[in-house]
Amino acid sequence: MKKKPTQKPTKSRKELEMAQGERMIALLIGGFGGYLVAEFVLRPYPHPWHWLTALAVSGLGYLGMALWQRRLRGF
Question: Which residues contact 57 (CB under 8 A, 6 or more apart)?
Answer without folding.
Answer: 30, 31, 33, 34, 35, 37, 38
